[in-house]
Amino acid sequence: MRGAGCTINDLWDRNFDPHVIRTRLRPIARRAITPFNALAFTGLQLLAGLGILLQFPTTCLYYGVPSLLLVTTYPLAKRITHYPQFVLGLAFSWGAVMGFPALGVDILGDAAAAKAVAALYASCVSWTVLYDMIYAHMDIKDDAKIGIKSIALRHEKETKAVLSGLAVLQVVLLAAAGTLAGAGPVFLAGSCGSAAVTLGLMIWKVRLKEVSSCWWWFKNGALFTGGGIAAGLLAEYMASGPRTDRTSDIPATAWKELVSSLT
Question: How confident is the model at residue 196 (pLDDT cuts 50, 70, 90)?
């Protein structure tokens, strides 16, 4: 689905990408691939995604298919709102929702699970908006010239303040998701603590006026934060072992999903 989303994005932006330094050499933009062939390739990607989805419980279809709407509307959002990164976050973070029904957790029928899913999903959305805001700074001059909107353009003068707010929101929501799933202090210190440190370091060190700095932190910052979160989750899981959730009625499979969704 990630690949299909990239192809769909390049199809929508085929008339914009040739005018942006970073994207002018993309296959469709440089006319190495025709829009028809790209559309056919998208169909193959979607069929491959459907084949994988069919390996999971049927319930996953009901949760998976609606995500296509988000995948296809993100490129359009750049034309009508300064916050397309929010739409991107909704699409990219869908795996946080999908994993629960894949493990047999009834989100709609389990209030505790639904709260954990909502907190985890919102945390991932905040995280996506944060690092994609840094990414958007690479194209800020070209976007302004061709009329593409972004959160970086809208908040150019207060970017680091916005990034800081998103980082706080991401960590708080991650802690809430873990608490609702029955995670203990190892998770809070390891996953949430490392997320706070790595996000803070990235926001402090990134030089938003330099394309190379934005690219480096976009590419590596997510690995630092994601690696810390994954390590904390693994440490928590090993410390506590398989069990029924301690603080809510979410079954042990939901805790395993919290681990798998973020790793």
Answer: very high
Q: Provide the whole-model pTM.
A: 0.83
Measured distance CA(208)–CA(11) in Å, rounded? 28
DSSP state of 57: -
CA proximity to 142, closest of 211, 84, 214 = 211
* Confidence label for 242 from pLDDT (cuts 50, 70 and 90): low
CA–CA separation, 16 vs 29, rounded Å?
Answer: 8
**Do residues 228 and 195 lie in contact, with contact meaning Cβ atoms separated by under 8 Å?**
yes
Residue 112 in tokens: 């505790």
Both tokens of residue 173?
């929501």
Q: What pLDDT, on a 0 to 100 scale, did the predictor assign at position 129?
A: 96
Longest dimension (CA), the chain: 57
What pLDDT sits at residue 191?
Answer: 95
DSSP structural state of residue 58: T
Dihedral class, residue 241 (left if φ above 0, else alpha if ψ from -120 to 50, else beta)? left
Tokens 């709260």, located at residue: 115
CA distance 22 to 237: 41
Rg (CA), the chain: 19
Check whether 19 has a pLDDT greater than 70.
yes
Task: Outline where 81-158 has alpha helix (H).
Answer: 84-92, 95-102, 111-136, 140-146, 151-154
In whole angstroms, give the CA distance from residue 78 to residue 21: 18
What span, in angstroms and rounded, lies between the C-alpha atoms of 263 and 260?
Answer: 5
- Which residue is associated with the tokens 């609702």? 180
Tell me the two tokens of residue 15.
């008339």
DSSP assignment letter at 211: H
Name the token pair of 104: 């047999």
